[in-house]
Amino acid sequence: MKKKTLLGAAMALGFSLAGLAQPQLLPPPELDRLVNRIALYPDPLLAQVLAASTFPNDIPEAANWADRHHYLSGDQLAAAISGDHLPWDPSVQALLPFPGVLDMMARDMSWTQRLGDAFLAQQQDVMDAVQRMRRLARQYGYLRTNPTIVVGGTGPYIEITPVNPAFVCVPVYDPLVVFAPPRPGFVVGGAINFGFGVSIGVAFRPWGWGYNRFVWNSHTVIVNNAPWHRTWATRTTYVHPYTVQRYEAPRRVETHQLVGRSEAEREAVRSGREMHEEHRGKR
Predict the structure, then answer these.
(1) Which of 27, 72, 130, 138 could join 143 in a cystine, given CB atoms 3.0 to 4.6 angstroms apart?
(2) Range of the domain at 132
(3) Contact 126, 53 (CB under 8 A)
(4) d(Cα 233, Cα 229) in Å, to the nearest integer?
């Protein structure tokens, strides 16, 4: 009888019993494959992506909002995020200046779900996988300091930090290339494109920008200047400290014209090229 009662309650809430169980822990090789597409992101962006992945249900709508408000930037974008009373977790809202990143996550929701589950259930293992990937990319000569990022850290831990904290790059690379020995004659310097990025000023401080980092030797993720303590066990109760909030869906408003990116704009971001804004000044 107890089992039937639990099943009925779970179904009423839209869950299955499988969804209530902790996900199966992934071994290192699977974790390596899971994180390889984001392992070379600068630490502040990587921390935000990992946090946001634990709210996968928010990602598709947030990606759509970011796409249709892509023509806004800086203070205007920050004001729009606040003014629209968005219903998504602040960790997801923090990625709205990065429509390409949200688009990547939304286009592969299976990956996003698995990443979020792994980060909730085995945070330390996920961080170790990131470090394994970074060590390979550095060992093979692909990952190194350049005008956009600084590759540093102490001991076995590799940090990737922006040269300019107000400009966060989104590296574009092929995991099949940068985590494998280079072919004879291959120019390793061009394998990672660090040219594309987003300007993140003080207006985005309420969402944690400027305060996100890792303490790698203690396996601590810092989001909005506070350790991220959301785990599989606490995922339904833990609330990370932010000054911004998520609103109830009925309070959602829209204060701007909606203009989706063109396919040329989307492709520019995916390939790491500078995006020519086609819509600014036409709304």
Answers:
(1) 138
(2) 35-270
(3) no
(4) 10
3 state DSSP class of 125: helix
pLDDT along the chain (283 residues), means of 10: 45 43 93 98 98 98 94 93 94 96 97 98 98 97 95 93 95 96 85 91 95 96 97 95 84 66 56 52 44
CA 34, 38, 39, 43 dihedral sign is negative
C-alpha angle 92-112-145 in degrees, rounded to nearest 5: 80
pLDDT at 268: 53
Angle at which helix 59-68 crosses helix 99-107, to 10 degrees, equals 140
Beta strands, E only, 113-266: 149-152, 159-162, 167-169, 197-199, 213-215, 220-223, 226-227
Tell me whether residue 280 is in a domain.
no
Indicate whether 195 belongs to any domain. Answer: yes
**Helices (H), ranges, the chain:** 2-12, 17-20, 28-35, 43-53, 59-68, 74-83, 90-93, 99-107, 109-121, 123-139, 175-178, 263-270
Closest Cα to residue 55, out of 104, 106, 99?
A: 106
φ, ψ for residue 172, nearest 5 deg = -120, 125
In a domain, 169, yes or no: yes
CB within 8 A of 44, min separation 6: which ones? 161, 162, 165, 168, 209, 210, 212, 213
Distance separating alpha carbons of residues 67 and 103, to the nearest angstrom: 8
- Structural domain includes residue 282: no
β-sheet with 226-227: strand ranges across: 213-215, 220-223, 226-227
User: How many other β-carbons are positioned within 10 Å of the β-carbon of residue 199?
Assistant: 12
Tokens representing 149? 């990022």
